[in-house]
Amino acid sequence: MLTKKEAAEAVRQAKVATGVTWAQLAEAVGRPPAWTTAALLGQHPMSKDEAAAAVALLELREDVAAALRSQPTRGALDAAVPVDPTIYRLYEVIQVYGPTIKELIHEQCGDGIMSAINFRLDVQRVPDPAGDRVVITMDGKYLPYQW
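That's the Cyanate hydratase sequence above. Prediction below.
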């Protein structure tokens, strides 16, 4: 059986070969683009129907579908500090604004955290006269600590 990492690489290669976009895959799978992309990169298990739809569109084999259905070990970084420029910028945002985000969550919601399990993510390109912007929305359920 393929690993999640091997399946993700097969997906990336098939995307290039077929010209299929993440948005097209999300539509075929019936899930939001961010969730679908994360699943196809190995971070979520897919249902049998979801994996079948993705591999059919990408013209991949059943062993890829089987890997996509398997339970993942979450966390995608190969190093503590990411080296990819896009991922590093997100890391930098958390370094700079993480304490601020934490303080604002505590002030507005109380002593607790934002869930990354009950969570939605959206990424949009927004035109701007000063240069297009990237809007990243993280929407996680508030979970109060229970002492």
